[in-house]
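Entry type: protein chain
Record version: 2
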Amino acid sequence: MPHAFTTVASFTEALSRALEKYQIDAGDLFEQAGLPREPYRDPDARIPVDLLEQVWQEAERLTGNPCIGFEVGMELKASNFHAVGYACLGSASLREALERMVRYQRLLSTAADAALERLGETTVFLVHGGKLTHRGLDAFFCALLQICRDVSHADFAPLQVQMVREVPTCADQVADFMKCEITYGADDNTIVFSSATLDEPLPRTNPAMALASEQVAQQYLARMDKSDTVSNARRLLISHLPDGEPSRRRLAEALHMSERTLARRLSEAEYTFTALVDEIRQHLATDYLRQSHFSVTDVAFLLGFSDQSNFARAFKRWTGKSPSDFRPGKEKTVSR
């Protein structure tokens, strides 16, 4: 029987580093669970969640440390998050980085879902789905904060963390790491941030790297689950946008299904064709406009708009700004 839930294998590289401190051979532990001695050597490899839980349990037994999940999370680096980690490092703001985490959560693990919700002055990052065990969640929360610090500054801290799990024996150490109030036995697993902090421009940003990394993530997801209509539709739409206004009929033909079937499958994922195209264009527009070598005319063309004015109206609807006002510096018109 196939395993229903999987996690990207590169997470085990951090587990291996953590176990070295206890003079434990991680390779032996992996082999006991039926995994390669170094599962993280293949960046595209995935691990069934039930096997990973066996590894977590054995690691806890061998180390005698019930907080091994937190400790591994503190060892995780952006490179352990596949292309998503590099996309985060190139983001223009922490909000943009967290949005990427949410957008590509399935790449990281299919055992849980993530959401980012703005509630006025605060923004909540929520992880839900009962298939991710507390050890995995312990590691993910610590790793997420570590990435926020890598992206912004070493002293970054959220406003509050809430976890469903019971109070761990290492609660003091976790509090020292997270630098905020932590509530255990909560109804949900959430990290609460200041909205203003998330929206602050980051001093180091690399939109070209972020965009290229996202493309790698999209291709990975398409390979991972060819039956995922939304992922495949998104990939095809992105590749064909420069050809002109997206067509529902052409997309359905490329996916080898009728327009009615396409509409039904998108609806099952809470999308319409128009909403999906709009989301893709908005996301790509902000990435392209941060790259100075693209003029506004170039961006309009790359997104399939018939002319620059149509793009400008759409961008104003998305962001409340004109394309020229959005990008840093004065826009220069480049003739095609």
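Comment: Residues 6-67 form one domain.
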